UniProtKB/TrEMBL annotation:
Pfam family, one: Lactamase_B
Superkingdom, natural source: Bacteria
Cofactor(s) the protein needs: Zn(2+)
Keyword Transcription regulation appears in the UniProt entry: no
UniProt lineage: Bacteria, Bacillati, Bacillota, Bacilli, Bacillales
Record protein name field: MBL fold metallo-hydrolase
Keyword match Zinc: yes
InterPro entries per record: MBL_Glyoxalase_II, Metallo-B-lactamas, RibonucZ/Hydroxyglut_hydro
GO MF entry, a single one: metal ion binding
Domain Metallo-beta-lactamase intervals: 12-191
């Protein structure tokens, strides 16, 4: 199993392509759909689904284009299911008033922490609110990888000054759901370089 980090759009939001020999999962296609399509075609992969860590505009900008091109479903937490079609909630109305984002509903709405299997990919889902109400972290135990969205970063944590953000809730999410993972767990954040749970436990000044 392989993975690739592809920063997209003006905020350089990390999209991740997690792949086996033939298929792949797409995390947070924030912008530049043609860049993603070109990469997937070059690797001769067949996407199976899009997994969203949350529904802020910089993580969903290419979602509809990717879904339509590959005819694949998207997964999102129920607390942000309505955000895809609401520019005020996903933030695009504030930052891009001339081109607000109104996307199609997600095909799969996640209602709780659970095991999720798509093709050969098996994830454990953690509800990690704080940065946003419906933030999800996806844990791939067999590879020791965590796709944390904007919850946990290298030496930082997610901002909580956006609608639905809560600083105390974010710290609780990190402490109760993420820090108990093994030290060598690779953290794949929504922005910036990857890190590990062990490194953040020791050196993150916010924790």
């Amino acid at each position: 199993m392989k993975w690739n980090q592809i920063p997209l759009g003006p905020l350089q939001t990390n999209c991740y392509i997690l792949s086996d020999d033939q298929t792949c999962i797409i995390f947070d296609p924030g912008e530049e759909p043609q860049k993603l399509i070109q990469y997937i075609q070059t690797k001769k992969l067949q996407p199976l689904a899009v997994l969203l860590t949350h529904a802020h505009f910089d993580h969903i900008g290419a979602l509809d284009a990717i879904r339509e091109h590959y005819q694949i479903p998207a997964y999102i937490h129920q607390r942000e299911a309505k955000w895809l079609s609401d520019p005020a909630l996903n933030g695009s109305q504030r930052w891009f008033p001339d081109s607000p984002m109104r996307l199609k509903p997600a095909e799969h709405v996640l209602t709780s922490e659970q095991e999720l299997t798509i093709g050969s990919f098996h994830f454990q889902l953690f509800e990690t609110p704080g940065h946003s109400p419906g933030s999800i972290s996806y844990y791939l135990k067999e590879k020791g990888m965590l796709f944390s969205g904007d919850v946990l970063f290298l030496n930082s944590i997610g901002r909580t000054d956006l609608p639905g953000g809560n600083h105390d809730e974010l710290l609780q999410s990190i402490e109760n759901k993420l820090l108990p993972l093994p030290d060598d767990t690779i953290v794949c954040p929504g922005h910036g370089p990857v890190t590990t749970i062990g490194d953040e436990r020791v050196s993150n000044p916010f924790l």
